[in-house]
Every structure is written in C-alpha cells, then in structure tokens.
Amino acid sequence: MVEVKGSAVTARVRFVRDRYGEQGYRKLKDSLSPASRRALDARVLPHAWAPFDLFIELNVRADELFGAGDLALCREMGRYSAEMNLPTLYRIFYKLGTPSFILRKAARLWDVHYSSGKLTVIDTDGGARLRIEEFATPHRAHCLSVVGWAERSVQLSGGTVTYAEEELCRTRGDAACELVARWR
Questions:
Q1: Residue 105 domain-assigned (yes or no)
Q2: 96, part of any domain
Q3: What backbone torsions phi and psi does residue 140 show, to the nearest 5 degrees?
Q4: Is 84 within a domain?
C-alpha cells in the first residue's frame, strides 16, 4: 500500500476548513468512504504515514464538492500545502535558495513524503521539468497537487511563475508523469 506523509492529508483538511468552514469539512467528510472517515477520526498526524488512497479521495471529493469537478482545485490545494507545510527550518531555504535549488531539494526529499516512486528535477532554460517515476498508484489529482506545490514553491523562493503545467501523465498512457514549471 502506498503511503503519503500525514502533513499532505492534514493540509487538505485545513484547506477545506479555512475556505469552506466547519460545515464544508463535515460535508467533505460525509462524502468519503467509511475507511477514509475512520482514518480521519483516528487523527492523522502530520509526521506519520497515511494511506495515499485517503489523500487522493480527499483531493477528488473536495474538487467535486467545492470545485468544478475537473481536479483544478487539487492544484490550488497543492499551492496551499506548499505554504502550510513549511517548517521553520525550511523557510530559510526558501528565502535564500533559488527556485531551481528548492525543486532539486524536493527531489532529494521525495521519499520522506511518499513511500513510492521518485522525483527527478531537470533544470531547463528558465525553469525545470519534474518527472515522477515508478510511482505505484499514479493519479492525476496527485500530479496536479505537485504542480501547485511547485508553482507556490517557485513563488516563495522569489520567482515569478510564467508557466506551470502537467505535460505528461501515466494515467493517460505516458511512460512517466512530467510537470513543467517556468519562471523569471
């Protein structure tokens, strides 16, 4: 079973509560599978592992309830989590590091946040290509969340995003998921 760091789950819960209030969170929670509701009731801890399926279900259901049903809200939740999940220690990297530095650092820390796959960052002229490989259970909601996270990370490290998109995805038959970000 693929797992994700609990902070990814708690950031989605916090996003919904911040944007849609406690009533919105209850609506989201009521829409989840019994297993996901039980996991939330058991309290997901930010530094513990949580089921990746719970993460995906939270993203998809939130998008269905509060977004347009096109998974675009997943990208927004990814941006939100980039800011909310920054421990004090990492904030200095964002202030002093370049966008390229931050994205390469994320690649080295992938296995701290996911129990599957790897992230490769390839610097390009004015940006980077992020390649998610060997992820056991790819899902477009995850890819879009990573795009949002990368987008906000570039901004937090002083860049102005000019382009950020998912260009390839295994769920569409591509060999890997590739996300491209450009900035100035």
A1: yes
A2: yes
A3: -60, -35
A4: no
Amino acid at 10: T
C-alpha to C-alpha distance for 37 and 51, rounded to whole angstroms? 12
pLDDT of residue 93: 72
Domain interval for residue 33: 3-79
150 occurs within a structural domain = yes
- Where the chain has pLDDT below 70, the residues are 87-91
Same domain, 112 and 172: yes
- The reported pTM is 0.93
Please name the residues in contact with 38: beta carbons below 8 A apart, sequence gap of 6 or more.
none
E strand segments, the chain? 3-5, 49-51, 118-124, 127-133, 161-168, 177-183
Over residues 98-125, the pLDDT tens digits come to 899 989 988 998 999 999 999 999 999 9
